[in-house]
């Protein structure tokens, strides 16, 4: 059994070194080369933007030093004790975990795509992401969606054993979406994410491409925003996938509502928080 390690970072004023005003806990999964921000708390009388940014800067320094893939999901605002001016909440939305078999997903997506082809719908060209050159072509698109530079994290993921990637490109060579998958802890489980596309049609094309690359009996899991209800309803009703609500998120000052509608799956491999 592997035991995770924890790294605690405390915030203290320079003029009162014995006074702890906040802190965070980072959990390190050395056996999986992953780190995540487990919790972060700041005293209400010290919850200004400088304190928040300082703690997150320390979090970034830590993961850069350890060279791990890191992610951070603040589930509820109560976990991050910061006043509204420094954490702008506009609207909540839910994240759903979708689980189903690759064979069922391929069958459902193929039936849908066949219907599109009969209607002479123009579909993008799909490419497999197989080397560093190909992975670099998605950096700009990923940055446009997430608002962050995640190029190093994406390069690290592409080097994992069992990595698969798919890229959708228009006739004008414009990126219209991409998706990647890696094996989970069990060999027959596949985790898909990120999966970003400009519409549901392209999301299903990418999803089918990745599911065709693995064994039909593989168990597929991915996370989907509740803002994209047509996608998870399609997978539930036609691909016989199970749906489990996992947690809530918040719209924030960086990522606008319209941008969220472009996101069909939330990656577990985030290098920065969402605000």
UniProtKB/TrEMBL annotation:
<dbReference type="InterPro" id="IPR041496">
    <property type="entry name" value="YitH/HolE_GNAT"/>
</dbReference>
<dbReference type="InterPro" id="IPR052729">
    <property type="entry name" value="Acyl/Acetyltrans_Enzymes"/>
</dbReference>
<protein>
    <submittedName>
        <fullName>Acetyltransf_18 domain-containing protein</fullName>
    </submittedName>
</protein>
<dbReference type="Pfam" id="PF18014">
    <property type="entry name" value="Acetyltransf_18"/>
</dbReference>
<feature type="domain" description="YitH/HolE acetyltransferase (GNAT)">
    <location>
        <begin position="139"/>
        <end position="264"/>
    </location>
</feature>
């Amino acid at each position: 059994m592997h035991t995770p390690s924890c790294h605690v970072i405390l915030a203290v004023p320079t003029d009162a070194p014995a006074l702890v005003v906040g802190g965070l806990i980072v959990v390190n999964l050395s056996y999986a080369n992953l780190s995540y921000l487990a919790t972060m708390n700041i005293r209400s009388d010290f919850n200004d933007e400088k304190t928040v940014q300082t703690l997150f800067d320390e979090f970034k320094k830590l993961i850069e030093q350890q060279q791990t893939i890191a992610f951070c999901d603040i589930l509820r605002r109560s976990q991050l004790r910061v006043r509204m001016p420094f954490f702008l909440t506009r609207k909540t939305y839910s994240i759903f975990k979708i689980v189903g078999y690759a064979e069922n997903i391929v069958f459902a997506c193929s039936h849908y795509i066949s219907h599109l082809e009969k209607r002479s719908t123009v579909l993008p060209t799909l490419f497999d992401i197989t080397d560093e050159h190909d992975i670099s072509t998605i950096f700009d698109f990923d940055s446009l969606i997430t608002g962050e530079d995640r190029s190093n994290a994406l390069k690290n993921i592409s080097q994992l054993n069992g990595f698969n990637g798919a890229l959708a490109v228009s006739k004008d060579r414009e990126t219209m979406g991409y998706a990647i998958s890696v094996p989970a802890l069990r060999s027959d489980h596949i985790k898909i994410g990120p999966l970003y596309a400009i519409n549901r049609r392209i999301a299903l094309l990418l999803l089918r491409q990745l599911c065709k690359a693995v064994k039909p009996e593989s168990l597929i899991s991915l996370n989907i925003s509740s803002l994209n209800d047509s996608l998870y309803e399609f997978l539930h009703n036609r691909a016989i996938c199970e749906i489990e609500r996992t947690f809530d998120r918040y719209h924030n000052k960086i990522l606008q509502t319209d941008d969220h509608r472009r996101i069909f799956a939330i990656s577990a491999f985030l290098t920065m928080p969402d605000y």
